[in-house]
Write a structure and sequence with these properties.
Helix content is about 30%, strand content about 25%. It is α+β, with helices and mostly antiparallel strands and about 190 residues long. It has a domain of about 60 residues. The protein has a four-stranded antiparallel sheet with strand order 1-2-3-4, with helices on one face. A three-stranded antiparallel sheet has the order 5-6-7, with no helix packed on it. The two termini are about 35 Å apart. The C terminus is likely disordered.
């Protein structure tokens, strides 16, 4: 693909450190048996450039919207990375959806699951009060808590995750302080 790039090749900025150029309906000098949409991505990482190739076969003209194609492709990779990392905590499976809204939802849920243990570890370590829920580790608490019924309750500027009587944590609750909550929405920090 790099051999097809000339000084006249136009590159479109599609991310903070990424640029993309594409060829529609090409076999790449008969490398592929049928025409595909092919893109070459350049990632600036420090002083070096890393490259990736994006492939598409279908009716949609993805080369007309390189930014959209890149972010859809990147979103799928985010899901796969979240699944790989999350297998240690949550039972996750490979992609079972194809529609853009479903992919977006799965991307957000995979990101949340992958980041939640880091968030919970930091959050519980910074709490002034000792944890009220008996647990061997944060990882175990998240695994059990993710499959346990609970109510989200608000008391003034404090939010509580109150476990139901049917849960193994019956009678316990997790307090979420006001520094994590804004306008009634729980804001999770980036890792």
């Amino acid at each position: 693909m790099r051999a097809a790039v000339t000084p006249e090749t136009t590159w479109e900025r599609v991310g903070g450190n990424a640029s993309l150029t594409a060829w529609a309906n090409t076999t790449v000098n008969d490398y592929f048996a049928y025409p595909m949409d092919v893109a070459l991505a350049n990632y600036q990482t420090g002083n070096s450039i890393r490259r990736a190739v994006l492939l598409h076969y279908g009716q949609k003209d993805v080369t007309a919207d390189l930014d959209g194609w890149f972010h859809m492709y990147n979103g799928r990779q985010t899901i796969e990375a979240g699944i790989k990392e999350g297998k240690n905590v949550f039972q996750m499976h490979h992609l079972k959806v194809r529609s853009p809204p479903a992919l977006l939802l799965q991307e957000h849920m995979a990101c949340f699951a992958a980041n939640f243990v880091r968030f919970a570890t930091h959050w519980l370590a910074s709490e002034a009060q000792p944890a009220t829920i008996p647990t061997q580790s944060v990882k175990q608490m998240v695994q059990v808590g993710a499959h346990t019924s609970a109510w989200v309750c608000r008391q003034g500027d404090v939010w509580l995750l109150r476990f139901t009587e049917q849960s193994c944590y019956a009678g316990h609750s997790l307090r979420i302080g006001r520094r994590c909550v804004s306008n009634g929405l729980l804001r999770l920090p980036a890792p």
